[in-house]
Amino acid sequence: MQILQHLGLQVDALITDPPYSSGGMVRGDRMQSTSAKYVQSGPALAAAHNVDFSGDNRDQRSWAFWVSCWVSIARQTLRTGGYAMVFTDWRQLPALTDAFQAGGLVWRGLVPWDKTEASRAPHKGYFRHQCEYVVWGSNGPLAIAEHGGPWPGVVRERVDHRKKLHMTGKPVELMHKLVQAVPPGGVILDPFMGSASTGVAAVQAGYRFIGIEQDRHYFDVAAARLQALLPEDRQAAA
């Protein structure tokens, strides 16, 4: 993101799904591999999309500080009035709303993502873990949109594991519902690109996209996925 600042590039939206560091109630739980924390035992462990990813082992205080740091950097690339949308779960929701504001963004609300009744159920006696959350806001004042809205305050989209290319990947259909808030033709930044669900939705909807990913496996998956969306003449040149 510092490179974007150095080049003087600005983006119209920050839409991202960072590691939650949320799997477990104590430090010992959090230090497990992501597959141990987030994948149920059995055949699912062998699924091609269940490759471990990094950055998911912070305790809540260090996670909140880390989020405020990268939000502050990302905000400097975000134009005034640009949208910010960051995913989290129920455990980290209070910490994220604080870190979101500590990084200099204006917090404007939550968009619950209803994963439907097909979502994972811990066991009998629990309420189903059916929602994750998008903390959303803007970099400063938010003008009245000329291209649409208001958009739904709750989005309902099930996870189809047959389509997943990342252990915690979000459905492209879900991301389509979020990117529509960005002015047409705008630039969307995702500093935790993963398998590029945000990027695919952005490109398909006519936006420009900048993605950052530190895990080589998922970077390669994302690059191949995005390249496949290019016209054939540009694929040959890429």
Describe the structure.
Helix 4 packs parallel to helix 5 (93-102) and helix 6 (172-179) packs across helix 7. The radius of gyration is 18 Å and the shape is globular. The chain has helices spanning 2-7, 27-30, 34-38, 60-75, 93-102, 172-179, 197-204, 216-227, 232-237; strands at residues 11-16, 78-88, 106-114, 131-138, 155-156, 187-190, 208-211. The mean pLDDT is 86. The chain has a single domain (2-237), classed as Rossmann fold. With 238 residues, it is an alpha/beta fold. The chain starts with a helix and ends with a helix. It is built from nine helices and seven strands, in the order H-E-H-H-H-E-H-E-E-E-H-E-H-E-H-H. It has a seven-stranded mixed β-sheet with strand order 5-3-4-2-1-6-7, with helices on both faces.
Set down the secondary structure blueprint:
Elements: H1 2-7, E1 11-16, H2 27-30, H3 34-38, H4 60-75, E2 78-88, H5 93-102, E3 106-114, E4 131-138, E5 155-156, H6 172-179, E6 187-190, H7 197-204, E7 208-211, H8 216-227, H9 232-237
Parallel strand pairs: 1-2, 1-6, 3-5, 6-7
Antiparallel strand pairs: 2-4, 3-4
Helix pairs in contact: 4-5, 6-7
Concise description?
This protein is 32% helix and 18% strand.
CATH architecture group name: 3-Layer(aba) Sandwich
Going across the biggest sheet, name each strand in turn: 5-3-4-2-1-6-7
The biggest beta sheet is recorded as:
7 strands, mixed
Q: How many individual β-strands?
A: 7
Number of helices: 9
Q: Briefly note the structural class of the backbone.
A: alpha/beta
First-to-last CA distance: 22 Å
CATH topology: Rossmann fold
Our estimate of the beta-strand percent is 15-25%
CATH class identity:
Alpha Beta
CATH superfamily: Vaccinia Virus protein VP39
Contiguous low-pLDDT stretches (5 residues minimum) are: none
Shape category: globular
Roughly how much helix do the residues carry, as a percent range?
A: 25-40%
Radius of gyration: 18 Å
